[in-house]
Every structure is written in structure tokens, then in C-alpha cells.
Amino acid sequence: MLQVADAMDPADPAELIAAAADGDLSAFEHLYRQFSPRVYGLCLRLTGQREAAEDCTQESFVAAWRALARFEKRSRFSTWLHRIAVHTVLARRRGLRVQYEVAEPDSGLPEVADPSGDGPPLDIERAIAALPEGARHVLVLVSIYGFSHAEAAQTLGIAEGTCKAQLHRARGLLAAALGVERS
Amino acid sequence: MNDPMKKSLDDLLADLPRDMPPPPYLWSGIARRLPRHRRGRSPVLFAAAAGVASTCLVGALIWAVLHGRPGVPATQPVRATEPAVAARAPSLDEPRDASYVAARDSLELSFRQQLALLDPATRAKIEADLAIIRQAHEDIRKALASDPSSPVLEQLWQSTWHDEIDLYEHVVQATQPTMTRT
After folding, report:
1. Interface membership of A41 toward B (CB under 8 Å)
2. pLDDT in tens, B8-36
3. How remote is the C-alpha of B167 from its chain's centroid?
4. pTM of this structure
5. Which chain A residues contact residue B31 at CB under 8 A?
6. What is the mean pLDDT of residues A31-52?
7. d(Cα A105, Cα A128) in Å, to the nearest integer?
8. N or C: which end of chain B has fewer CB within 10 A?
9. Is residue A99 domain-shared with residue A135, that is, in the same domain?
């Protein structure tokens, strides 16, 4: 399993967080500049739709601003923020189900993910976007963003065994779609 | 036989960029939506109450200045005659159209449901905060009844029902279930 989250996260900028929690919009903008690429990437891959990812990124940062005063320093800011983003995506998805407005994945992902136009990343992004939703969510969190199975299961509200099964399914579908070895 | 030049799935996943720059216009949309009242580090929605309390104080002082009278204590409700209150119809009043009212009622229902799940101490704190907001709303309404042309009071009036909505949203968002089933 890839453990990228801890390895790639920047140190939590405690002063910016404290200032933003006291209402300093400039400090919050700095936090946004620092953390939004990861949040946007996460939302884009979870939703498979650019417009939805933009909405979810916006909602996530608005929610984070409102909740900053309750952020506990013992947890990592990026982890806290990513949880908000995942919940926002799931909440939006539930809302869309109610309104019968679920759209098919659009073509936004590859253009954003692969601006150079190289082949493999474009293909894999398309294949990930085309995965069944549950499998895609687990694959994105565990295999791309480095969540442990326990973290992903808790965040998604599923059993850890289900999480592992979904990952197995996702990897199988992805490997077949791309014509590559699973590992 | 495996093709040594062919990447495995793990390789492909590892090569994916984790960060993707969001479109540049996204921040301006976020900044427009952020509530601007200052917030402290104290727990559970104290900030909303503090904001409204300061609103009450400022409102009472401004109202007193506009009327050329000594300052009125912030905690003392401003007196006004009821007929004048009934005649008052602020132009910045809370919207009354059906879609807004339905959305507001839905939000309030969610707020009540989530509130019921909180521990008693937290619930009491939030209800106290809500009472402060509503008291401020009532005080400003009465002040407006005596001075309907005051733009400052109108703004304060508007801010109190915004604060109430913010409080609802804050509680609903803060108590989003962490265990949700897909």
C-alpha cells in the first residue's frame, strides 16, 4: 500500500491556523493556497467531475473556516481538512441522489490531471473515474492518498472488511481496464 | 511472461500527482461566502453569541447617540410601544418567499435533530447562544420601531437573523455523522 499522505504532507502551519481561527481572512487564504491543490485533487478523483470537485472544494473550505475554532492541534490539519472534503463529497452525493440529478463522469479529469498530454496518466484517470463509486472512493483514499484501511473505512462509513473488498475489486477492474498487472 | 517495460498498477498509481491546482477563481467564491465576524478559540459556537452580544452593545450605543440620550446598558432591552413595533417592516427583513422559508425550516429541523443528539452541557450552551441571538433580534426590532430610518439599526437587524442561520448551519455541519454508509 502506498503511504503517501504522511510523507507528502507539509508541516502544519500552526500560526496560520491560529490566526485564521481568530478571523484573519488573509491567514486563511494562505492556508487555502497551501492545501487546496490536495483537497481539489481529492475531490476531483472522488467525484470524477470537475464542476462537482469545484463545488466540494469550495464547500470544504467554507466548512473548515466555520469549524477552525474547534480544530484540535493534536491532529494533523491536512488530515482534518481531508476528512471534511470527503464528508462534503459524500454529503453532496447523498443530496444528488435525492434530487435524481446524478451525472455521468465528465471529461474534466484527464485534462486537469495530465496537462502534458502523456498517455498513461490520462488513461488511468479515465479508468479511475469510470470505476463504480464505492470502489473508486476506496481506491482514491487508500491507493492514491495514503489513507489506512481503518481511516478510509471510518471516513466512508463502511466496515474495514468492506473497504478491503472494495479495494480488491477496484484494483481488479482497473488492472483489467488498463491491461496491466495488479502489482 | 511479464513485459518488463510495462508498468504495474502500483507504479501507475504511484505516478499520479496528488495535488491538482484548483481553478484560480475558486478562492474568490470561497472568500465571498465566509462569515466575517471574528471568532474566538472558545468551544462550541461561543463566537456566535459573542458576536451578537457585541452587536447588541454597539446597537444600543448607536441608538442612544442617535437619540441624544445617555448610553443604554447593553443588557437592557430598548423600550418601544407595541403599535409602533407592529407597524415596523424593515426593508432588510428576513425573506418570506416560500422556497426560503422551506429551506430555513428544513435547516432548523436538522439543527433541532442534531442538537438533541449532543450532550446536555453542549446543548445547553448552544441553546443559551440561540437565546442571546433571539434576544438581540428582539431588542433591535424594538429599537427600529422607534427609529425606522436608522440604516445602522437596519444592518444590525439583518445581522441577527444571519447569525441565527449561521448558528444552525454551524451545528448541523459540526455534527455531521462521521459514520455514513455508501
Report:
1. yes
2. 888 899 999 999 999 999 999 999 988 76
3. 5
4. 0.55
5. 25, 29
6. 94
7. 10
8. N
9. no
Q: Does B116 touch chain A (CB under 8 A)?
A: no
- Check residue A32 and give its pLDDT: 96
pLDDT tens digits along A55-84? 999 999 999 998 887 787 777 899 889 999
Check if the beta carbon of residue A54 is closer than 8 Å to that of residue A44.
Answer: no
Domain count, chain A: 2
CA distance A101 to A86: 20
User: Can you tell me the distance from the alpha carbon of B91 to that of A104, in angstroms, rounded to the nearest whole number?
Assistant: 44
When the pLDDT of each residue in chain B is averaged and rounded to a whole number, the result is 67
Pair A29, A66 in one domain: yes
CB atoms within 10 A of CB A133: 15
Q: Which range marks the domain in which residue A24 is found?
A: 11-116
Q: Which of A65, A93, A116 is a domain's end point?
A: A116
Q: Is residue A171 part of a domain?
A: yes
Does A56 share its domain with A20?
A: yes
User: Is A125 inside any structural domain?
Assistant: no
CATH number at residue A165: 1.10.10.10
Q: Of B9, B19, B174, which is closest to A174 when you measure between CB atoms?
A: B9
ipTM of model: 0.77
In a domain, A163, yes or no: yes
